[in-house]
């Protein structure tokens, strides 16, 4: 299993009386593309942060790629995340004044899995396959279109050849045309590289791209006091 959760309970430290997650059991197998939907405030980002070891549960076991994250120190979890998990965010989180190559290079710096020349080669392959013309590789990313920035964010997420890709509302800044081309490109990229994909969004229209669709409210047994 790529992801296995058992008897997870989570609340934020300063809000102990507001449980956010209560997940008895949930898992994802290798190669699955899973879409989890739920309204804003439902706990989607919290769940993803737990899967990537940014947050630890108050109770229960988080197992990712056969590693119990609970047993790792925070430093080990950061290393584990850099080596195994790619992340695509809503706001891309690119550094605006750096160019495409520099943004991607920065992500590779935190993982030891590739040498410098392998990184260069992999960057060229990724940017080319994501249809970013070479003439744009050295421009500050803030000068590129939103659609292009989001494709650079995919390249960055994939540079360390992650086994698991986590996407948190990556299309919400995109218009319909950019959204559809982003999704098509994302799905073919994960397919081609045999990457397991967990994608969360409130936008149900995206479910058409996935072979597994779930509602967070169904897998999360917490009282829905937060969801609006
Ligand atoms: P979603 O991603 O579905 O919008 P989140 O996981 O971001 O939901 O948030 C779930 C709930 O947890 C919300 O009520 C949010 O206000 C609360 N929350 C998120 N982050 C924190 C935090 N750092 N401290 C306290 N509460 C938080
Ligand atoms: P998203 O839409 O991706 O869930 P949010 O806008 O809910 O993001 O939250 C943005 C950031 O603010 C997150 O890092 C989240 O942890 C934090 N946050 C959200 N709600 C709270 C809260 N009630 N208290 C403290 N931090 C919060």
Automatic annotation (TrEMBL):
Record's keyword terms, sorted: ATP-binding, Nucleotide-binding, Transport
One GO MF term attached to the UniProt entry: ATP binding
PANTHER family: ATP-BINDING COMPONENT OF ABC TRANSPORTER-RELATED, IMPORT ATP-BINDING PROTEIN
Domain ABC transporter as annotated: residue spans: 3-222
Protein name: ABC transporter ATP-binding protein
Record organism: Thalassotalea profundi
